[in-house]
Amino acid sequence: MTIAARPETLLIQGMLARRTTNGSFRPDPVSREHQHLLMRVAQAAPSHFNSQPWRFVLIENSQTIQEIARISGESMTELIEAGVFFERYRRYFRFSEAEMNARRDGIHIDHLPGPLRPFTRQVFSDAGLRLMRQLGVPRKLGEDNRRLVAGSPLLLAALLDKTEYHPGELSGFYSVFGLGAAIENIWNAVGALGMGIQFVSTPMEIPRQWQAIGGLLRVPDHLELMAVYRLGYLPDEDRRPAIDWSSRHRKHLEQFVSRETCDLPETEPR
Ligand SMILES: Cc1cc2nc3c(=O)[nH]c(=O)nc-3n(C[C@H](O)[C@H](O)[C@H](O)COP(=O)(O)O)c2cc1C
């Protein structure tokens, strides 16, 4: 039997297939059973001294979802319009297959919105930014983003308990590490439930917008809002969104693993 066919490797196959969903979800609500299962897998994660510093808010109220969607879309428009997004993140974008294949990290810009496709190389320049503004791209991307979030049946807020989470101290690192492990468990589990998950991250980039979301969720002083995700069941047909920020490319072993010391890159048969 090949390794891939052995049932005990289903978990590993699932982890290798884990991915970010950038497209829309089916409108059906996520069953309470699945929501609670996701919370159970989250809390199965390791944490320092079993402190379990994570807290979660499950959000299904349609008004709250619409409001978070509005904030998210507005934030996207603001970030793109001001050029902040491309300035902050241009180093992660790859402009050719060759560049992507050499580095094997970042995101290949191969799916820009139609009007911009002929200008792929200029999109991160000042001239490209002016052109994008003229074509109304920031608003289009903001509206795409708002619609994706608004059409999600479930949002999930991840928070940390500030009695554990002290940024800049080891406990801060441990808490973030534990929350990351909990989120990764959720991320892996959604795949097995026919669901998808994506960060709702644009509001985090604009402090007043992040505060507004904190206000909507009535986050108390002893908790820190760390992240918001949108979740739902996946449609049968996987249509790619206007801009697909995710990538399946991964580095070769010798690009991120070494043996015995940092000096000797690990090799693997290809
Ligand atoms: C800390 C962190 C922040 C991320 N932020 C976003 C985000 O803002 N929007 C998004 O669509 N994906 C986001 N992602 C997902 C990555 O883009 C994605 O994991 C990467 O492109 C690889 O694609 P994959 O998850 O489908 O394998 C984030 C992932 C991490 C770990």
UniProtKB/TrEMBL annotation:
Gene3D superfamilies the record matches: NADH Oxidase
Matching Pfam families: Nitroreductase (PF00881)
Annotated signal sequence range: none
Domain annotation Nitroreductase: ranges: 17-233
GO molecular function: oxidoreductase activity
UniProt-listed InterPro entries: Nitroreductase, Nitroreductase-like, Nitroreductase/BluB
Cross-referenced PANTHER family: NAD(P)H NITROREDUCTASE RV3131-RELATED, NADPH NITROREDUCTASE
Annotated protein name in UniProt: Nitroreductase domain-containing protein
